[in-house]
Amino acid sequence: MNEFAVAALVLLAGLVPCGVVCLRGDPLSRLVGLEMAGVVDILLLLLLARAYDRAIYYDVALALTLLSFAGGMVFARFLERWI
Amino acid sequence: MSLRDVVVAALLVVGVGVTLVSCLGVLAMRDAYDRLHFTSPATTIAPLAIAAAIVVEERLSAAGIKALLVALLLLVTNPVLTHATARAGRIRQFGEWTVQPGEQVKEGEP
Across the A/B interface, how many CB contacts are shorter than 8 Å? Predict the structure, then answer.
């Protein structure tokens, strides 16, 4: 277990506050919680890719970066008037 | 423990610490606009620190370049997302705002 795996394990605790924010409050606050959880996930995948030492795993983090951006934009667009 | 290990550990502590603190900030703030502020340290300092740790460890190999690419992509896309979210909140609160051609914009009106 190298230092990157330890850092990923510690970073996992950051998902708990994001989940709590997602579970209560107004819709906009929940969206912010979701975006924050996406960022934490991206950093976790980066750390895990280094911990497992496979160059191909970095592509997962790259894809999640693009997809969480697109997903956040779609949610923001719908929250403007329809939901 | 070489100097490189110390640098990597310090960068990882900075990245993980900043992310955890901004997660707690998102939880503690009162409304969505206050919460939005706390997503930015987690998308600027933290990815750059973690990518720098990976580059120090791996040099500029395929892995290091991809990690830097993820950090730069987060740096570019997240301000756009934050702006879109805040704009969505404003439109929910006050409705769509439009200015007709030739119309004067009044100060202090939403």
Answer: 147
